[in-house]
Design a protein that fits this description.
This protein is an alpha/beta fold. The protein has ten helices and 14 strands. 38% of the residues lie in helices and 17% in strands. A hairpin with an 8-residue loop joins strand 8 and strand 9.
Length: 344
Amino acid sequence: MKTRRRPYAEQRPQDLGGGVWSVPVPIPGNPLGYTLVYAVESPRGPLLIDAGWNHPDAWDALSGGLAVLGLDVTTVSGVVVTHFHPDHAGLAGQVREASACWIAMHEDDAALVRLMTEYAASEQDDFQSDMLRRAGADPSEARQVMGTRPVPPAMPDRELRDGDLVDLPGRELRAVHTPGHTPGHICLHLEDADRLFTGDHVLPDITPHVGIYPYDRDDVDPLSDFLDSLDRVADLSASCGPLDALPAHEWIFPDVAARAAEIRHHHEEKLERLRDLLARQAQPLTIWEVAAMMTWNRPWGELPPALRGMAAGEAAAHLRTLEARGQVRRHAGVDPVRFQALNS
């Protein structure tokens, strides 16, 4: 399938007009290639939307890319993080050190950053091991899936809620809570320019990862949250008029509502296929068994251990949504947890 995605080496900082710029910041060793960091003009100094991965090459790209555009990283007034993942929040702390700016993110993701900061490495290992066991992963495979403990991003100075206006004098930049990819993911609506910074929520060619961690949680439903958030973005476009999407990866595109509808359709089809798969099984399946039977961009046997762990998280999220819709049931009191289709 053809794609408009270009490698990082072909990316350049761009003046997008209307006091908005974009700077591609590399993600070393990641197939996504780069994060698009946006700068918005402000009399106090540019405001950044996301900051990029915490790596010396990424810092050079961010600070150098801003300089190419006539901006100075030392004059940044604030960084709004769309979500806490390292390719978005990783350099926020270094930007703050260079410029004395503030960092803001949604309160739900801020709570996760606090938890990560307080978590000891040994606790992280125990958490992952037990999570993988309860999902049905083989112990030897579980050891491969367990990666190194991620470095927590910088704690934010400000916490945002849905509908809050960001501190951006002379402009109207409003936080739109769009949970799913993370509990505190936000899009940012530049209301005076019909632009929506979509973070990872709506991307032009791929769909963001939506998973559950731990896999067997039954008190959250992130995929349903994500689907509701897609509807919310579409409704926003319907009420405000067509919105151009400025995503954190790939490329800028028009008509965010149309793309949101495509992504919703993709997940509804995936849910239907999963329901049919479970209905054909004589016995209930573990989350790991379900993940191994689902369709990914590569066969299960070719997925590296880390990607198998993410695939299991997505399988768990889809199972949880089917459970919430009354289409599958969870077998309580068994270890590992198992799921079975209900008769329609």
